[in-house]
Amino acid sequence: MQQRITEQGTSYRGLLDDARREPSRHLLSDGQNGIEEIAFLLGFQDTSSFYRAFRAWEGLTPAEW
To answer: Per the domain annotation, does 65 fall within a domain?
Structure first.
């Protein structure tokens, strides 16, 4: 599997980021879940990890977005 991912010019981390980015926007927009719960639902180890990833994606923290 790793070989196929590499052949496609991406990485496991890149695929995981792609799978988390859009759902994070949606979950933040609907306002039904807190940031801690969103981080959990998306499989982040902790809220800090979610904040770092979201800032890398959007240039803002989840709370600012």
So the answer is: no
Single-letter residue type at 28: L
Question: Could you tell me the CATH number of the domain that includes residue 7?
Answer: 1.10.10.60
C-alpha to C-alpha distance for 12 and 46, rounded to whole angstroms: 19
From the list 43, 47, 51, 52, the residue with the least C-alpha distance to 15 is 43
pLDDT in tens, 16-50: 999 999 999 999 999 999 999 999 999 999 999 99
Q: Which residues constitute the domain of residue 52?
A: 2-58
DSSP-assigned letters across all residues of 12-44: HHHHHHHHHHHHHHHHHHH-SS-HHHHHHHTT-
